[in-house]
Please model this.
Amino acid sequence: MRLIHEPLSTRRQAVLGVVGVIGVVAVAELLMRTVVTKEGLPVPSRVFGSLGDLFSDGTFWQAVGFTMAEWMFALLLATVVGVVVGAAMGASKAAMITFNLPVEAFRVLPSIALGPILVLLMGNGMLPLSITVALACVWPILLNTMYAVKGADTTAIQTAESFGLSRAEVVRRVVLPSALPFAFTGVRVAASIGLIVAVSAELLVGGGSGIGGYILVGSANATNLDLVYAATLVAGVLGVLVSLVMSLIDAKVFDWKKGLAQ
Amino acid sequence: MTDTTTAPTTQTIPELQLDGVSKTYGTNLAVRSITADIPAHKISVMVGPSGCGKSTLLRIISGLDQPTDGSVSFEGKTVTGVPEGLAMVFQDYSRSLYPWMRVDKNVAFPLSKVPKAERERRVAEALEAVGLKDRTHLYPWQMSGGMQQRVAIARALASQPKLLVMDEPYASVDAQTRADLEDLLLRIQRELGITVLVVTHDIDESVYLADHIIVLSTPPSIVAETIDVDLPHPRDQVTTKADPRFVEIRGHVASLLRHKELQTGEDRP
Ligand SMILES: Nc1ncnc2c1ncn2[C@@H]1O[C@H](COP(=O)(O)OP(=O)(O)OP(=O)(O)O)[C@@H](O)[C@H]1O
Ligand SMILES: [Mg+2]
Model:
């Protein structure tokens, strides 16, 4: 008998994954053709069928480009702010005391709710959307960086000190590099959250731009709901691709994580 | 027995002097008062029971910590920060080496202000000295414990120290590796003529390595005795350890440590 913990081969895993996806799609198709046959449901075969129309629609590609740009700018903003503030809080007591309350307060605010206010203040366009997304993304990056910097290994630090490095040099050459893989884990989590928030913010306040805007306009017209579903599907696939790319970067750049002393 | 309550350093000037060093953590008196001379160009070994404050003393010597009372001077100057010309090898090599740097980068770590060509030469020399010159492109965590500790030693050597300080450097490697690393240290010290201070709680190791032994008492610790070891060089794991002088000194250190309780707190002159 095989043990349940026994690892499966990569190939077997891939096969099982594909079988799972096809199975779910097939069951959905069957249900929507026999049991729940209401107009406007996302019948898989029709949704897939309209992918062709979607891909030949120039405005859709514009929307995808807009969302990606908005999301990437937000992630950049969140990474810079999260790493800088997180590292400062982890490395200095003064920074910790200064930023602790604001961080705790802002962290529980639903960033999406700030979207309309930002649009009001800054007008339409990408910037208020990106800031909304960044406000949701910054927390995992900031917190991961903060804890990693705070928990940097004392022996590693003392070693650097024993070679006569100043405090600033110790932070730059030892503390920050050792915290980097944890910060990146934060970026990975933030990237997925960010895409969801980006599309949601566009649905709420996007003024018709981005994938969210495309979906919103399409469903308001209700001319071709299948196109709307197809766009939603593309947004989901984008999310999967993003987290795949991030995990590839993680495996490549932070391979040395294996060597961190527990 | 070469009991040296009289000055042990008639031929050589002490490189490092501990003068009444004590350390209190909160209300815990860890080190009562340590006065000792570490002679230049020799291997001195500090041996003492667990918890007697050996690591604390090394941190104070290397300027990473301050004594509560007393002072340390290195080459005649009172130690306030990390002294120039000191390098430290820690017991815990897996934490002391940087896992994101390959071996050559780890060894080059203390040399960031040295010009590139010289830096590369010194890294190569140091790795050659510890027998790792063909392993420069591994990460430390891809190496065995003994190899990692050799990388740490190479890194210390690359900084060209006058004083090499080692805190139980071989406590977490197997017996064979330990013997190899002991011989490596003896060879390198003879070649470079540097001053070495090793901390250990292994009596055999202390006698085998030492030109000079400082035996500490149980905490709050004082110096129980200092001993000059006149065993000939080069030393050999088999013949040196069979030498009657070795056996004699070894027995003496062991009895000092066994009766350590008696010595604690006695005010020695
Ligand atoms: N940072 C610290 N804060 C409080 N007490 C400490 C600290 N460092 C060491 N001590 C105390 O000082 C005493 C000596 O500790 P130290 O680590 O120097 O001993 P040691 O001789 O190196 O022991 P071992 O052989 O087990 O490594 C111990 O009682 C320990 O609890
Ligand atoms: Mg210790």
